[in-house]
Amino acid sequence: MSRLIIVSNRLPVSLDATEDGSYSLRQNVGGLATALGPYHKAHRDCLWVGWSGISPHQCSQEDLQDIQQAYKDRRCLPIFLSQEEIDGYYDGFSNNTLWPLFHDFSHEAQFNPDDWDMYQTVNRRFAQALEPIINKDDTIWIQDYHLMLLPQMLRKRFPEVSIGWFLHIPFPSEEIFRSLPWSREILEGVLSANLLGFHTTDFVSSFIASVGRIFPESSVNQDGLIEMPDGHHAAVDAFPIGIDYNLYARTSRSGLAQDMRRGIEFSAGKSKSHFHSFMSAEGDAAAEAASQEGSWWSHHHLEDQPELDLSRSATASINQKENKIIVSVDRLDYTKGLPERLKAFGLMLEKYPEWTGHVTYYLLATPSREDVASYRELKAQVDELVGRINGRFSLLAWTPIHYITRSLSIKPVCGIYAAGDVALVTPLRDGMNLVAKEYLACHDGREGSLVLSNMCGAADELTDAFIVNPYDIDMVCEALHKALEISPQEACARNVRMQARLKVRTAANWSQTFLETLRQVTTAGMSEKRI
Ligand code: ADQ
């Protein structure tokens, strides 16, 4: 029987040890788990192979068997990595080298030969785990930048098997890619697949440019079929990933998500008359104090921005303005542009003091990769900025930023999306960005504005959003202000156009299109060989 074997760094579920010694399964957060999890669940002939996230030294032999069985019941084959392997392959080469380099953060990239050795070792471990279970009719779909050597390793053992590889993050420009000391080996690794997928045509072009530069003897035809000097063909194309639109639209209407939404709206002072009168009284008091004391806050600059004119803010018709909610949902990662975004929000409060007391930013930012120093530094920077903005602009009954660092499951996340009058999605670089799409699905057929970075794949599709350069703090500030002021009719009209596309280009459609293309290119390749 032919099966689909998905291979990725992490499995879609993690096991947590419970107090009674058993294990409970938890759905992993992240783009890949969200995109492919439903496909895996729905297809009984689909097996998922990946790192368990558990070190074998953490548990007894008996536990290990239980863990393996629990995963097997979920059609998952776990791979166990030692701490040394995790350090070199995952924290090291994947997250300290490839991740920053591919996101144009080359100054963050470390080129450590020991990490490269461990990356090869762990890719080989994946190959060894897969070899005994692969049938020649299986389709193997390898995911992402962690496993770029795996297609070549499997190809050596299985010359005929159908192999696809998809990159979920950007592919950098040829100049940046070439700075990787092992760029040739990495390209050789992925080019052994039959089909290579990227989110956008720009990433495809960058990849083809790198292949042309590093292998001048290769050629590429207009259909994106690369021919290598040894005669091997690999097809390359763009497959923009989608979301399970109906799932998000439906979940946002669920009881729990609606409760969350109402709770957020309540705490942001939407529709609470006594809250408004409190705010108004406090605003007047602040104005009075400001006029008497002058700019006491001038020692608390938000970077080098001008001082807040609180007297203006307080007299700015507190009762006339409708309260608004801004939301964002991210892993705490330096590519997501959180400090820049916070500065833009702070600048908006500064420049448009009429928002004082009237806009609350719900910032969900869950720490990730905490073993990596740059991530810990980012967390400290975000903590500090949130503290400074809240410290500087808060009134007694209003705090501008509601900052949550816990990981939340889909229902509360949808509640947050649904509550947001504006979603602020401003990554400095992103392969696609699913958050932008999920937000729109949670505003199915209704208003809600999206401020979206021009540096993510989603910007190619969601052209009715407020598109911004995420590095341009002024531009983000202005777009945010406009997005908050937009009429519900216009916001709704923009959304309906974008939602029409998202309803068709779903996650299921993405995987079907990729797998169908893979089937076609593999079949074409085989018939060519037979000729
Ligand atoms: P990610 O970098 O993880 O994905 P993204 O596309 O935004 O980024 O997907 C994140 C997913 O995790 C979303 O489904 C979101 O709802 C969820 N999520 C994020 N933060 C969360 C939080 N704090 N709590 C709960 N859920 C949270 C990678 C690439 C992206 C690409 C995807 C899919 O970096 O560019 O879009 O893969 O290919």
From TrEMBL:
GO terms for biological process: trehalose biosynthetic process. GO terms for cellular component: cytosol. GO terms for molecular function: alpha,alpha-trehalose-phosphate synthase (UDP-forming) activity; trehalose-phosphatase activity. It comes from the Bacteria. Belongs to the glycosyltransferase 20 family. In the C-terminal section; belongs to the trehalose phosphatase family. This is Trehalose 6-phosphate synthase/phosphatase. It comes from Bombiscardovia coagulans.
